[in-house]
Amino acid sequence: MTREGWINAALYAGLLAVPLWAWATDEPFTITLATRVAILALAGVGLNIALGFGGLISLGHAAFFGIGGYAMGILASHAQSYTPLMETPFLIEGTKSMPVIWLVAIAASSLAALVIGALSLRTSGVYFIMITLAFGQMFYFFAISWPAYGGEDGLSIYVRNGFPGVNTLDPIQFFALTFVLLSLALWLSARLAASEFGLALGAARQSPQRVETVGLSPFRLRLTAFVISGAITGLAGALFADLNRFVSPTMFSWQLSGELIVFIILGGVGRLFGPVAGAALFITLEHVLGGLSDYWHVYLGLLLLVVVLFARGGIIGLLAGRRVAHD
Amino acid sequence: MTDPVLATRDITKSFGAVRASDGISIDLRPGEIHAVIGPNGAGKSTLIAQICGGLRPDSGTVEFLGKDITSLSGPARAQRGLARTFQISALAMEDTVLQNAVLGALKSRGGRLGYFRPALGQSNLREAAFEALHRVGLADQAAVRTAELSHGQRRQLEVAVALTLRPRAFVMDEPMAGMGSEGSRQMTQFLDTLRQDAPILLVEHDMDAVFALADRISVLVYGQCIATGSVAEIRANADVQAAYLGQDA
Ligand SMILES: Nc1ncnc2c1ncn2[C@@H]1O[C@H](COP(=O)(O)OP(=O)(O)OP(=O)(O)O)[C@@H](O)[C@H]1O
Ligand SMILES: [Mg+2]
Questions:
Q1: Measuring from atom 6 of ligand 1, which residue has the nearest CA?
Q2: What is the mean pLDDT of residues B17-28?
Q3: At A155, which helix (H) or strand (E)?
Q4: Most confident of A80-84, B190-194, B240-244
Q5: Are residues B5 and B50 in the same domain?
């Protein structure tokens, strides 16, 4: 196994070991922190497919995170108030079933990513960043001004949604669900990266002309990556809402898009486990530094500066050295 | 006479006041190397961009294998077997030499891109890639990161990627650019063998290479093709002497 492989394995084992230890010593708060890490890492794994593999700096991924969150919020709030979402032309009822909510979150965020991507991928560089930011803000203001689902105050869901055979109210069981989904997303992302599609997407990042001369359209490669990316981040949004039993427009905020980018930069852009390392470090810092000082973001900013200036490959790059080409 | 593989018919392209292509009609016949020469800014790269789909002509058509391809995208032209190399290397620099070569082979093997099939795990892609690398002499560099290749080796890799497309025609923009005399000599020898795979439309400043390789030469000046002919004809052409060779060679 490569050095990066060992580091990834250690991270993976660590993310599993911490909550198990917390469970054994009856520290539910630590389990919840680990669950946050797993969910935010999942959102980051999604973004990493666009940003890391495809070089698409999206400052609007909160849109997908929020869509996932509201998919959960809307479906669950209708279920808890026993009112259908709509009756004509056909009846759609709310649900408290996680698998259904996840599918809806994935479908809705993929669709949004398809539309946003189709429009914004016509641009590149700073314009792309700005357009994705603008789309994110559109969703943010829309959510604020949509009274049916809580507007600015958001929506509270009183009981966590259910998953067959799992007691989702038990923190460790809910963690297990998020951990399994994160594992699946990591597996998917590893497969994609090594696939024909991944090779072409990476080449489109490095030289779009090259990709065109071998008969592939950079636009289509990027759009596909953007949709897969948005879908995974949307799924993370649904889980995040379920973790907090609360959805609000802040899930759509550009700060959240920024945080997802921060995870990836901290962890290592384009590294498979970069978002996991980044999210874990971020949540740990937030927890430790946030307890010491209200201005912990200043320290985070300094750390980011150091990483950007001295460790371009993020934590994983620092520990594993330059990426070794497979094969 | 056999039908040309590739032809432009009276194409024009202006950038503001600059007429970069001013009614250019040239063709590429089976088995030949057709060199396009001309001073800097004559419109050679612009001509290639229109042939390969990066730019659309203001008027005129581009034909390839008997079909009008003027409205096709660059990738669609590449899929039909039009292989291009760039004046300034366009390669995936962070990837290995082998990955670049496999990239070329992806689409020419037909079908859709695999989302799960490992790109480097398929023997047909690897074979095609290694065969091309072998021919340009880069097979033992397969595992090297492209950024670590010398300038000349990158030019060779460009040609190798073009080869993996199983092309019906090559269009090359200054393949010897910046190569040094030994590198140019090797590339010249190599291109000489390459014409057996497919005809080559060759834009090149290196006159030794052009005179050694070309079956025909076209001379572009200010967006116009002022002459087309054999090496001997072009050498003897007074207009060409005045416009180009006189100052340059
Ligand atoms: N995208 C563009 N926008 C505006 N002008 C352009 C553009 N591309 C090329 N030109 C102009 O068109 C003319 C032809 O340029 P082109 O690059 O085709 O020349 P060339 O023959 O390839 O030159 P060189 O030998 O230096 O490579 C030049 O005057 C150039 O400045
Ligand atoms: Mg040129």
A1: B15
A2: 94
A3: strand A155-156
A4: B190-194
A5: yes
Q: What is the pTM of this model?
A: 0.93
Indicate whether B72 and B186 sit together in one domain: yes
Tell me how many domains chain B contains. 2
For residues A9 and A241, the answer to whether their CB atoms sit within 8 Å is no
**What residue type is A251 in one-letter code?**
M
> Are the C-beta atoms of residues A28 and A44 closer than 8 Å to each other?
no
ipTM score of complex = 0.91
Which helix H or strand E contains A205, and what residues bound it?
helix A196-206
**Is the Cβ–Cβ distance between A235 and A105 less than 8 Å?**
yes
Which residue in this structure is represented by tokens 């371009």? A312
Question: A218 vs chain B: nearest CA distance in angstroms?
Answer: 9
A51 lies in some domain: yes
pLDDT of residue B245: 58
**Which run of H or of E encompasses A225?**
helix A218-244
Contact B103 A200 (CB under 8 A): yes
Domain that holds residue B145: 92-166
Contact A203 B74 (CB under 8 A): no
Residue A29 confidence (pLDDT) = 95
Question: Is pLDDT above 70 for B17?
Answer: yes
Do B100 and B160 fall into the same domain?
A: yes
* B217 and B240 co-located in one domain: yes
- Considering only CA atoms, which of B10, B11, B36 is closest in space to residue B207? B36
Domain count, chain A: 1
Same domain flag for B134 and B72: no
